[in-house]
Design goal:
The complex is a heterodimer of chains A (about 325) and B (about 240). Chain A has about 325 residues and is mostly helical. In chain A, about 75% of the residues lie in helices and about 5% in strands. Chain B has helices at about 45-50, 75-80, 95-115, 120-135, 150-160, 180-195, 205-210, 230-235, 235-244, and strands at about 5-15, 20-30, 35, 60-65, 65-70, 80-85, 165-170, 195-200, 215-220, 220-225. The chains are: A mainly alpha (about 325), B alpha/beta (about 240).
Chain lengths: ~325, ~240
């Protein structure tokens, strides 16, 4: 399918999704939907480095928090509309991703994963000790109840939902474009065999830097509207374990080989988590992820997409 | 005298206290077929890794096509025209056989020519290389569906797809039957006839002797002989190294 046709289909699906949410006159669905969309962006971003290149990043929460705290910083110094904050958050998180890549990409496997975890710890320590953005006390973001969008006065949560929906479309388009491009081929060679990739003329280090930058930028973009969503940002919520765990688990459960895997994983897991939050407790969310992840690693190591592909292959035979 | 395509001067490499290469010097002329032999642990693969940029030599210089290679990354050397096949085949497992060949075309060849290699052109050229090694009927298969000899052919075809001036075949025939060795040898000769200079590293002496125009011998990180194959195998030092 051509990229333009695909974009039109994704945009139509996003518009239908937004229209459907409008029909349900309950703001909770926008709150829950925002969270699921946010995880689609995070999972898609993680998959660019973790799925396409095979470099497992345990520091997703750090990039998400960089985006969130960029918004807090700018909210205090020079308030900007949220779309511009998303661009700024993405830019700063992208630069952090580039820096992390430069410092750590000579590391491989578990050493790289540990280094990304260390990045999250270092950044959290910095934020906890940075009074200007609230430090360990946290920072309040007072948002209006409604906002005027193209002449329509809509509740603020619907506005945030709409922004996250657009960001989701952007993330999916970026991932799909990479997957079908020369860059995507290069990423796959890094995942399969880095030494052989270099021997084929693939500039592996440069490609890994592109992946860390893109992945970090998208995670930062997902985090930028978060202070406006939550209203009170503190280090424990921005650097929460669930971002790091979900960012890894969702693509693993959906399938890391293509853009649709993180989407399926995030919709499935995100929805289950939202239902569990309402019916049981948000405390069981990480438990659900853990149980599902273990189950999928044993039953379907290539995720739902891999499972379906295997079934189709068997049927063809 | 023709300018050498590859010139190695006093190349040295240590791993801790172990001297893997001890001041190796070697030249390879354009279009030549050089055999490189030596017992296990003599430094052949380390030398290949230093030539290709996988390892950095601590002393000496490697000059390829008139350009000093020291400090260049492995992919930059491939782009300049230096390709290798690995001792143990290292295919890209998630890609089809044809896609494995598209990688050097999309990266090495494109970077060298500076022009865009269109998808259709890359497809056509990868199929041409697969035809040359007799794997065109397996283009859509995954590497895991190939036999051992087919895997070795894929390894060579992928190195060829980088369209190199010099190809280093590192033990491409290990573990193959007599007829399979013949297959690979014919393929290497065909490549050489296309103008590609080849360094063959091999333990199978009959294959090295029939293929090489010149033979170099490494023992304990030192070059102990270099000359015509028949003269080299009669060299007392070589006999001693192999027979003790």
């Amino acid at each position: 399918m051509r990229s333009r046709t695909f974009l039109l289909i994704v945009l139509a699906a996003a518009a239908a999704f937004f229209a459907f949410a409008q029909l349900v006159s309950n703001n909770y669905y926008f709150f829950a939907g925002y969270t699921v969309l946010q995880f689609i962006v995070l999972a898609t971003a993680w998959n660019i480095l973790g799925g396409y290149c095979g470099y497992v990043n345990f520091g997703s929460a750090a990039f998400f928090a960089v985006g969130a705290y960029t918004s807090v910083f700018l909210h205090k110094t020079y308030p900007l509309p949220i779309p511009l904050l998303i661009v700024a958050g993405g830019g700063i998180a992208g630069i952090v991703g580039l820096g992390m890549g430069y410092l750590t990409l000579r590391l491989r496997g578990s050493f790289f994963a540990i280094a990304t975890l260390a990045l999250a710890v270092v950044l959290q320590t910095l934020v906890v000790n940075w009074d200007y953005v609230g430090g360990s006390r946290g920072a309040y973001i007072i948002r209006p109840n409604t906002i005027n969008v193209a002449g329509f006065e809509i509740p603020y949560i619907e506005y945030l939902f709409l922004l996250m929906l657009i960001l989701t479309v952007v993330a999916i388009m970026v991932a799909r474009t990479i997957e079908r491009s020369r860059l995507g081929f290069g990423f796959a060679t890094i995942r399969d065999d880095e030494l052989a990739a270099e021997a084929c003329g693939v500039p592996t280090l440069r490609l890994k830097l592109i992946a860390t930058t893109l992945s970090g930028a998208l995670m930062g973009m997902a985090g930028a509207p978060f202070p406006y969503y939550i209203g009170f940002l503190q280090p424990q919520s921005a650097f929460a374990l669930e971002y790091a765990v979900n960012s890894i688990a969702m693509p693993m459960i959906g399938g890391t080989g293509s853009w649709i895997g993180p989407l399926i994983g995030a919709v499935l897991l995100g929805t289950i988590q939202q239902v569990a939050t309402v019916t049981i407790s948000s405390a069981v969310n990480v438990l659900i992820v853990g149980v599902l992840l273990v189950a999928f690693v044993i039953i379907a190591p290539n995720g739902i997409v891999g499972l379906v592909q295997n079934m189709m292959r068997r049927e063809r035979r | 005298m023709t300018k050498p395509l590859l010139k190695i001067e006093q190349v040295g490499k240590r791993f801790g206290g172990f001297v893997a290469l001890d001041g190796i010097s070697l030249t390879v002329a354009p279009g030549e077929r050089l055999g490189l032999i030596g017992p296990n642990g003599s430094g052949k693969s380390t030398l290949v890794n230093c030539i290709c940029g996988t390892l950095r030599n601590e002393t000496g210089t490697v000059t390829f096509d008139g350009r000093e290679m020291d400090g260049l990354a492995a992919h930059q050397r491939t782009i300049l025209g230096l390709a290798r096949s690995f001792q143990l085949p290292r295919p890209f497992h998630s890609m089809s056989v044809a896609d494995n060949l598209r990688i050097p075309l999309l990266y090495a060849v494109k970077a060298r020519s500076g022009s865009h290699v269109a998808k259709a052109e890359a497809d056509e050229r990868s199929l041409e290389y697969l035809r040359l090694v007799g794997l065109d009927h397996k283009a859509a298969k995954l590497p895991r569906d190939l036999t051992q000899v087919e895997m070795r052919k894929l390894e060579l075809a992928r190195a060829m797809a980088a369209e190199p001036k010099l190809l280093i075949a590192d033990e491409s025939m290990a573990g193959l039957s007599h007829s399979e060795i013949e297959d690979i040898l014919k393929l290497l000769v065909r490549l050489n006839e296309r103008g590609i200079t080849i360094i063959l590293i091999e333990h199978i002496m009959s294959a090295v002797m029939s293929f090489s125009q010149r033979l170099a011998v490494l023992v304990s990180g030192k070059k102990i002989a270099d000359g015509k194959p028949d003269d080299v195998v009669r060299n007392p030092e070589v006999e001693k190294a192999y027979l003790g």
